[in-house]
Amino acid sequence: MEITEGAAAARRPLKDTPRHQLTRGLMRTLNVINVNYYRKHNPKNAGALMKKKKKTPANYVFSETGEETFADGRYIVRGRKLGAGSFGQVVEAHDRATSQMVAIKIIQKKQQYTDQAQTEINILQQLHLPQQHDATNHIVRLTDAFMHKGHQCLVFERLGPNLFDVLRGTNFQGISLKLLRKFTRQILKAMEYMRHPNVNVIHCDLKPENILLVSLGHSSLKLIDFGSSCLSRNQIHRYTQSRFYRAPEVLLGMRYTAAIDMWSLGCILVEMHTGKPLFCGYDSTDQLHRIINVLGMPPRELISRATPSFRREYFEEIMMVEGNNQWVDYRLKVHKVVPPKGVEVIPESSKTLAEILCSADKYGTANHPPEQYEALLDLVLRMLDYNPETRITPSEAMQHPFLMNLRQLQPDET
């Protein structure tokens, strides 16, 4: 039947049709009937159909008293939280067996995090085998592990503030070159040990928050959080590292090595001295753009070895012709960051790495002469080598002029 324009306009609104009037509230009526039926047959279940089933919280929930005991009364937890993350939370506790304060990492009650915690336990136990290298003094010590109400718990020695806290203490103006040297040598010692053929551990998440002072007011430090770590021969996650400290080979979806930790350290050194993250990308694409903006394009050979889907996400292929020779080159795709409302994105730096380092407030002041910045620049550039195969190793880095006593050409003491 043909409906004219006038007839269509004269049709009754849907809410006024008999069908709508007769079926309005039908689902509510059926729900009430169901509830009444189950109340009659099983009063204990009354109202169950009207309520959404509550989910069991994945994170451990402390009692309202604020004090609990773990591991058959050995550890007393009074609720002081030291940190939290996707894995769960870290709380301070008193170990009644040793009369020492410890940190307990309480893992979420999810299988993926429990499995990850078991990996961390295995790696830390391997790193701290008896009669191991003295570099283990710069790696956090796991003292106990147990299950508590379905949550995997890891007990660590109680340490001091992390390097991000140290940076915050400078009002994000950065630490001195002298202190930077002390920190760097200790981190490199731990990295050199982890890279040993008999150890072969990749940390996979080096960042200021995962490097802690042993105690407040002292420069000794330790690496923590091996929850994302893996053995070189057994890589668990293809995509790893915190974004600001993520190596280009990870961004490009390539198989990685312990060299990714060295890239992270290069980023950390700049941040600890200038007070600002070197590459603070909003997302992975923005991260790569910021790296290229400071360091230039990655070598064509590196891009060609990237996982194809990752390569296509970041680059356009261009066929180059010169005489009888043809080859494929790459051009970075345009990327515009559109953050959610209220999220501020730090503008990309238009400075070179040398300009970034020399813009530090301490440049040219006492104990901060230009030649030391030249040495630091050279070290960081070698840490940020695009090619992981030629990136500086921990052993090589410890012999770099920046980390040597300039008067005696001997390694600085830690």
TrEMBL record:
It comes from the Eukaryota. Residues 76-403 form the Protein kinase domain. Pfam families: Pkinase. Keywords: ATP-binding, Kinase, Nucleotide-binding, Serine/threonine-protein kinase, Transferase. One of its GO terms (molecular function) is protein serine/threonine kinase activity. ATP binds at residue 105. Transmembrane segments: none annotated. Residues 1-20 are annotated as: Disordered. SMART domains: S_TKc. InterPro entries: Kinase-like_dom_sf, Prot_kinase_dom, Protein_kinase_ATP_BS, Ser/Thr_kinase_AS, Ser_Thr_dual-spec_kinase. The keyword Kinase applies. Belongs to the protein kinase superfamily. This is Protein kinase domain-containing protein. It comes from Phytophthora kernoviae.
